[in-house]
Amino acid sequence: MEDFKKNLATIEENICKACERAGRSRDEVTLVAVSKTKPISDLQEVYDLGVRDFGENKVQELCGKIEEMPDDIKWHMIGHLQRNKVKYIVDKVELIHSVDSYRLAEEISKQAVKKDVNVDILVEINIGDEESKFGVSTKEVIDLVKEISKLPNVSIKGLMCVAPYVVDSEENRAFFHKIKDLSVDIMEENIHNVSMSFLSMGMSNDYEVAIEEGATIVRVGSDLFGKRDYSNK
Ligand SMILES: *Cc1c(COP(=O)(O)O)cnc(C)c1O
Fold first, then answer.
1. Residue 8 Cβ contacting ligand 1 at under 6 Å
2. Which of 3, 8, 120, 166 is the most buried (most CB within 10 A)?
3. Is residue 231 part of a domain?
4. What span, in angstroms and rounded, lies between the C-alpha atoms of 75 and 89?
5. Does the beta carbon of 222 sit less than 6 angstroms from any atom of ligand 1?
6. Mind listing the pLDDT tens digit for each residue in 73-99?
7. Distance (Å) from CA 201 to ligand 1 centroid
8. Separation of CA 209 and ligand 1 centre (Å)
9. In the chain, how many domains are there?
10. Distance separating alpha carbons of residues 90 and 102, to the nearest angstrom
11. CA of 219 to the centre of ligand 1 (A)
12. How far apart are the first and last CA of the chain?
């Protein structure tokens, strides 16, 4: 049995310490509890401990959990999003972290107009230029942000990255630093309807380093909920 209370306390302490080291305030960082593959009972326990931001990476699972969980949860779509599934989530999520193409942003805009909502999104950067990962390259991002910014009912609020899997989190420090630099470059472009309020970076393995480098959202799954079991998926 995972002790969610203990896990959460440890993560909270680590976040506080990382903020302190970086001279940042704790409320600059949001912890998103990544609950993918986990049963509702686990989410409910973590909810009861006070967590209100949850992250999922599959539309069907996300929609099922939205139905079953309390209404005051902020849901974060953090996984690769197919255009034909956008319509199921645009009016239900707080933030879509994983926008990696103009065509996807265009579909989000279209569905948002239809449902008369405004959707906040992050642009996903493939920071390690890994072939296995989604996201745009650092070279493409400014042009993409400019194009997306012209679309109605969708607002870019920052950047997201999934750093390479490493044993020593220090190996990812330079990547996180680069994302922060990139956000400053984008801000300096003064693009209408674009802000860089959110940097979604850092997972169980490297969230402390990410916070030291400027993360405002960390996405923590296994350190909170325990290892994921994909055996019957
Ligand atoms: C699964 C996932 C996480 C959480 O990963 P852990 O290593 O379990 O903390 C964070 N971000 C994304 C995009 C994910 O898919």
1. no
2. 8
3. no
4. 10
5. yes
6. 999 999 999 999 999 999 999 999 999
7. 10
8. 15
9. 1
10. 16
11. 6
12. 21
Rounded-to-integer distance, Cα 193 and Cα 157, Å:
9
When pLDDT is cut at 50, 70 and 90, the band that residue 215 belongs to is very high
Write the pLDDT tens digit of every residue in 103-159.
Answer: 999 999 999 999 999 999 999 999 887 887 899 999 999 999 999 999 999 999 999
Tell me which residue has its CA closest to atom 6 in ligand 1: 221
Q: Is residue 20 part of a domain?
A: yes
The model's pTM is: 0.96
Ligand 1 site-directed mutation target among 78, 172, 209, most atoms within 8 Å of CB:
78
List C-alpha distances in Å: 57 to 34, 48, 76, 92, 209: 9, 22, 8, 14, 23
In whole angstroms, give the CA distance from residue 230 to residue 99.
25
Q: Is residue 215 part of a domain?
A: yes
Ligand 1 centre distance from Cα of residue 124 (Å): 14
| Ligand 1 lined by 202 (C-beta under 6 Å) | no
Output the six-digit token pair for 207: 């969230």
- Secondary structure letter of residue 226 according to DSSP: -
d(CA 115, CA 90): 8
Domain range for residue 81?
Answer: 4-224
Taken as a whole, the chain contains a residue count of 233
Coil vs helix vs strand at 169: helix
